[in-house]
Amino acid sequence: MTIDVRPASVFEDVRTLLGPKSPGASVCWCLSYRVPSKVNNELRGPARGAYVEELCRTGPPPGVLAHDGEEPVGWAAVAPRADTSFARSRTIPHVDDLPVWSLWCVRVRPGHRGRGISHTLIAGAVDFARSQGAPAVEAYPLDNGGARVDLTMAYAGIRSNFERAGFVHAADTTSVLAGHPRVLMRLDLR
Asked: Omega of the bond prior to 23 within 30 degrees of 0, cis?
């Protein structure tokens, strides 16, 4: 198995990872943190996919995709924090004024889990942010203390996976997801 992480600029590959089974469904498409909440609530059905398609066409792409050969098997959302709702968050603090990038979603397709793809995605997202001039990358994973986490809510990642990737605890947050506190982890790229 050779996993290759690439910028998410091919919409059909992004659709494979994020698109709903029903075209009219109003599911995440990984937009809930990417756009202001008003816009997120207004984007319904196919409009959500169209918005993501536009993000793929305009730079920088909305994240990175892991491929096993040509098959897309994983997704990580990464973008400048200033371009996300984390810029205005009351629960995820700002550590300083550094123009950091946020890494807020890591997803591996069923049938491909348990092969280390999430670790490869985190590293690929960091490499992508670095190539775009990011001075640091932040993540807001669950601090689950080893407890089991529902896979649906594990999209934010697990603290230990980010520690393994070299991120360090930078701050506590008041955000809770799936009953677990979230922490702010940071990797300095300077």
From this structure: no
Kindly report the CA angle at 156 between 155 and 158, in degrees rounded to 5?
105
In this predicted structure, the answer to whether residue 1 has a pLDDT above a threshold of 70 is no
- pTM reported for the whole predicted model: 0.94
Distance CA 171, CA 136 (A): 14
Please, which residues bridge with residue 168 across strands? 186
* Phi, psi angle pair for 77, to nearest 5°: -90, 125
Q: For the beta carbon of residue 169, count every other beta carbon within 10 angstroms.
A: 13
Biggest distance spanned by C-alpha atoms of the chain: 43
The two three-digit tokens of residue 10, written as one number: 């091919």
Written in H, E and C, the secondary structure of 36-105 is: CHHHHHHCCCHHHHHHHHHHHHCCCCCEEEEEECCEEEEEEEEEEHHHCHHHHCCCCCCCCCCCCEEEEE
CA distance 147 to 79: 29
- Of the candidates 36, 121, 133, the residue with the CA atom closest to the CA atom of residue 85: 36
pLDDT at 26: 82
Query: Which residue, among 118, 97, 99, 100, has the nearest Cα to 108 in the 3D structure?
Result: 118
